[in-house]
Amino acid sequence: MTTWEYLTTPLLIHNTAAILNNWGKQGWELVQVVPGPEGGLVAYFKRPVAGDGSNSAGLAAAAEASRQFEDGAA
User: Cα dist. 24→4, 37, 55, 58 in Å?
Assistant: First the structure.
C-alpha cells in the first residue's frame, strides 16, 4: 500500500507557474488549490513516501521554501 506525505504552500499570484514547477520537479503532485484563510491561494500537494527515507531531504527543502514564502507574504 502506498504511503503519502503532504505539503501545503501559499501561491503567489504573480509567480504561480514557477512555484508549481518547482514542487513538481521535487516529485510533488498538485492535488488542489483553495482560497487561503487570509486571502490568496493555498496549494495542496502529495507524493509517495520512499521506503528508504530519501524524501527527508525534500521535506527539509519544502519547509525552507514555505518559510520563505511566509516571510515574503508578511
Answer: 15, 24, 14, 12
User: What global pTM score does this model have?
Assistant: 0.68
Rounded distance between C-alpha atoms, residue 18 and residue 51, angstroms: 29
Closest CA to 65 of 29, 17, 27, 11: 11
Residue 12: all three cell numbers together: 503567489
For residue 62, with 0-12 CB atoms within 10 Å meaning exposed, 13-18 middle and 19 or more buried, which class applies? buried
Provide block-wise average pLDDT over 10 residues at a time, the chain (74 residues): 94 91 96 93 95 63 63 52
For residue 42, give every residue at least 6 positions away whose Cβ sits within 8 Å of its Cβ, in sequence order, or none.
Answer: 8, 9, 10, 11, 33, 34, 35, 36
